[in-house]
Amino acid sequence: MRTRTGRRNPLGPRAKKRFGQHFLEPVWVAKVVDAIGAAPHDIFLEIGPGRGALTTALAPYVRQVIAVEIDRDLAAALPGRVPPNVRVVIGDFLDVDLDALLEGTPLPIRVAGNLPYNVASPILFRLLEAADEGQRFRDATLMLQKEVAERLVAVPGSAGYGALAIQVRLLADVDRLLTLPPGAFRPPPKVTSALVRLRFRAASADIGDPAAFERVVRGLFRQRRKTLLNALRPVAAGFGCSAEQALDRARLNPTRRPETLTVDDVARLTRAVL
Ligand code: SAM
């Protein structure tokens, strides 16, 4: 890749929008690595190493970094610029075969990534599912759009609280660690970013059936301003039961709003419609 002056661009290929590429500026790298809090025995899976800003800073403090990068051009440039304890893998984190990738790796490992914002939600859901209650992934320190980070930590009844908070907090504790302005990245994104940590663990409630839980959560929050009774009607009908009966069984007041429900409330409601 050459610049307009004909010189080789030392940073490698130009940022690609379709891969959500916004590279972390050097002054922020140390703060992010500090917030990750690595220990010498840690093994990290990094999602989207890009030009290796985080990878290069993190690798000296840990045993190994397995870095999965979708962009072939960036991945090809990495081995020359990262320490030898980094294994670069070309692939889409959403499809990568995690069993094959981690074969022989002592588990649990840790995850880090400055995520491409266009696929942050699917990546979050893949991590939750693949974490295996903390037995495969212990935690994940992730850069997200600030609004998404706020939704993850929102309390019941507040504006950002909804399906995402409930689905994530069923399986992880979430902490917000840092806020980063658009200028912390090149090119700067249009939004402010935040670093969060998810600590994976066993589900905090008995949800009966994961697919049913997802249907109930998503169905309820399509109608978040309605009463619980009205929001639940179409969802309950899909399970062949009445909303009144389900609410009674779950011991929930029908006049409440979906946005006030805790993870435990939604778990009880799911068991009640099954
Ligand atoms: N970690 C680098 C940094 O902080 O400077 C780059 C961060 S950039 C926001 C996101 C990176 O994820 C890009 O390198 C992009 O190519 C990569 N990426 C996008 N989608 C991906 C996917 N599905 N799987 C793996 N990497 C992906």
Description:
This protein is of the alpha/beta class. It folds into two domains: 17-200, Rossmann fold, CATH 3.40.50.150; 210-273, Helicase, Ruva Protein, domain 3 (Orthogonal Bundle). It is 35% helix and 19% strand. The chain has eleven helices and nine strands. The protein has helices at residues 26-36, 53-58, 72-77, 98-101, 120-130, 146-153, 163-171, 210-221, 228-238, 243-249, 263-273, and strands at residues 23-24, 43-47, 64-69, 86-90, 109-114, 137-145, 172-180, 185-186, 193-200. It has a seven-stranded mixed β-sheet, with helices on both faces. Helix 2 links the parallel strand 2 and strand 3 (64-69). The protein is elongated. The model is unreliable at 1-8 (pLDDT under 50). Bound molecules: S-adenosylmethionine. Residues 19-24, 47-51, 53-54, 68-71, 74, 92-94, 114, 116, 119 line the site of S-adenosylmethionine.
